[in-house]
Structures are given as structure tokens and as C-alpha cells.
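Subject: complex prediction, re-run

Hi both,

The earlier run crashed halfway through, so I resubmitted it with identical inputs.
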Amino acid sequence: MDDNGVSGAARYAVFAPLEDGGRAEVVARRLSEAIALGLIGDGEQLPRESDLAAQLKVATVTLREALSTLRHEGLVETRRGRGGGSFARSPAEASLERLRRTLRELSVHELREIGDQHTAIAGTAALLAAERAGPDDVATLHGLVERLESARTPGDRRRADGRFHIETAAAAQSSRLTRQEIALQGEIGELLWMPSGEAVPHREAVAEHLEILRAIEGGQGTRARSIVERHIGRGVDRLIEFHLRLAGS
Amino acid sequence: MEIRTAAGRVTAVLDDAFGWLDLLADRLRALHEQSRADGRALRAHELTALREPVFARLREHPKLIAGTGVILAEDVLADRSHWLEWWQNRPDGPPAFLEVDHDPASVGFYDYPSAAWFALPRKTGDRVVVGPYVDYSGTDEYMLTLANPVRCGEHFLGVAATDIRADAFESLLLGAIGAAGPPAALVNATGRVVASNTPQKIAGSLVEERELDSAWSEVPVRDSAGRGCAGLPWKVSLLRA
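This time it finished cleanly. Structure:
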């Protein structure tokens, strides 16, 4: 990584050509998610407009429109003159307006698909973790349940929640399940922890994580899987409810 | 006895890796001492001086070694408090620099100060073998990490470390015992299978004492230099049918 660059894998995903028509909203969403997820860090300089437009395969005017939206949302700052350019501004907390829009734009079908996939991945990870987790893994997971419990901001809650599921997949000793869990957390994590709109209320999320962990610790794979499935199913059901509410408003 | 041969081969691989880490640690210490003699702290770009030996090491073992390099403690570099000079073998083409998430606020933050292979050598001064484990925020592979603390006097500079692909040990075991031999496993100090020649207990699964065949003595795998090393001994043992 260069001094203020984006990491390689992230750059690939963030700056890969857009395949869905190259509308300014799509460009803006791709970049804002990347900023919110930390794929583009606070203060990092974006590539020059002409280069970025070429990488994304969109017209420069489309990119400018997208950057203007992001500036308006406070996610990008533009400085003029020498050493100038566009810089990412990571919000301390995710912008509620942006999350609402994302949730409105996702369809029920897409949300259900994400939920189905997440249930399959996280459920199997919990089942295998119950067979394969060592004392170190269990200690790590306990730490993450405590971290979720003491987390006050939506961002901290989302990170502790995401890390718990990612560490469960790692405790299952599976690189593939872990990679997929990370991708799913990137896709849905922020939505589940919308400021003042938690899909699973904080206290219940803590209780459910603890229940999952106890089943893993006790080697009860089938039980661990079914609790995870219920936990994730609840979250997705709530997101679908939010979506319908937003779309119908 | 084949399990003795297998244990010998595994020991040789570990010894060779730790020999390399001693050399790499010396190089980092020398860079640090040089910068102190100049009355300043090291900067991240000066670690490029380590690239030549690192690349040579990677070229020597394209299959076995997934990556190697140094990981710095927070008070060592003048311009970075979180930094790795780490290179990975690629199947074809030159080594690749490992790019990780240095932002503590991100879900994917590479939190190495709390990783066992960094925290244990820092705390105990001993070397360490960790794994096999899924290294999800670093290299994305199923891995073992060997690490040596690097100190300058009392000052902990970080670790010199290397990643060995977990798969590599399977070949070593199969080379000595064969797939048709009696079911055997290489087991780490926490009871996790590193490699086996049987689907009964595959790499990553946990094995309990009662599952090992006590009629055959197990063969320990230890660091032959006899220095302290957390995570060892491993053992090669036959499994109960």
C-alpha cells in the first residue's frame, strides 16, 4: 500500500468497472459504501477524476455528479490547488439518510437472498465451530460478546457483531466460510445496526450471541446452528419490514 | 519406524524456518541500531533493505512458505505505529507485498498486536508456533505462523515471522507414512491436527488423548535448538482404529 492508498483487494472491488449502467447513483453508492465500510479510509485521496472514471468505465460527467452527491453527504471533500483533489471523509457514524436509501433500494427478493446465504454460511460455520473451536477461539468469542455488550455507538455495535460471526467462521477452521462471512458483513452489517433502527435490539443480540457461544463451547453443533439460523432470520425479517416501510412511505 | 521419519522431517522444516527467522531478526536489529547511531528513528521505507533476503527466502521454498517478513511494535518507526514489511509467494510472478487494513475503526482491521504470534513473543521473549488457523484479515489462507521476537536490549522491536502453508505438512507426513500406512496424525500442542493420512481426522479437527493409539509411542516434534518455543512440542502419533 502506498502512503495514502487503498489496499489492493479493496481497490479492485471498489474501483472495478460498473456493470449496471453506470448511473451516478450507482457510482455514488459504490463509493459511499466503500467509505462507510472503511475500504477507503478517512482522509485518503481518490484517484484523479479522469482516471477514476476510466477505471469505473463511466463518463466523467457521471463521476462528477456522483462526487457532488458524496460531497453533499459529507463523505468526500474536495481541495483546490496544488496537492488538491478529492479526499474521502469517513463519518463517525453512518449517515442515517444513506442507510435508509440503501434499504429502500434493495428489493425484498434481494434481502431474502442475502438472508438465505447468510443463514447457510453462518449456520454451517457455527456447526463446525462447535466441533473444532479450541479454548483460544472460545476466549476470543467471549471477548467479542463482551465488546458487543459494552458497545455504545451503532458503529461499535456493528463491528463487534460482525467480528463475532467472522471469528466463528475462523474457529470452524474454514477459509472459505470466513471469506464469505466477511463479504456478507460488508453487505448487510451497517443496515442491521442502523442508528436508532437496530434490526435485532442490542440487548437481545448480546443474549443470542451468548447462547450461540455456549452451544459452541459445549460442542452442541446442531443447537449452535439452529440458534444462528433463528438469530439471522430475525434480523433479515426486520430489514424486510424496514424496507417495505421505507418503500411504502 | 515411519512415524519417527515423519517427525524428523517436520523438525527439520521447523529448525530451518527458525534459522531463517534468526537471520531476519538480526537484519532488523541492525537497521534499528544504525538509525539510532544516526540519532533518529527508522522510517517504514527503510525496511526495503530487508527485501533482498526475503525474496531469496521465498524463491527457495515456493510451495512451503506462504510469506515472510517483519511486523513492527508501535514505538519503533518514526512514521507508522502499525506496520508490516511482509511479502507473499505467488504461484507465478514476483512476490507480492501484503496490504492489510491499518485502520482500527474498520471491521477488517488487521489487529496484529493481539494476535498470538505477536503477543506471545512480546510477553515471554520466546519464539512461537501458532496454528493451523484461518488468517482472515491478513493472508486469507489456512496457515501456521512461526515468529521470533526481535529485541534491541530491553526494547521490543517486533517479530520476524514466516507463514507456512498447512497443506505442506500433509506432504511431509504422506512422504514418510503414505496414505496406505496405518492412520496417523501430526498433532499440535493444543490437540489440533496439523496433518493426517486419514479422513478419520483431517487437518483442523481436534483430537483427544483417547483417540491416539497408546500401544505405539508417539514421537515428539520440538525445536532442536532447545530454546523456549510456545506451541511446541507437536507429536506424530498413530490413531486408534
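Chain B has two domains: 1-167, 176-239.

- K.
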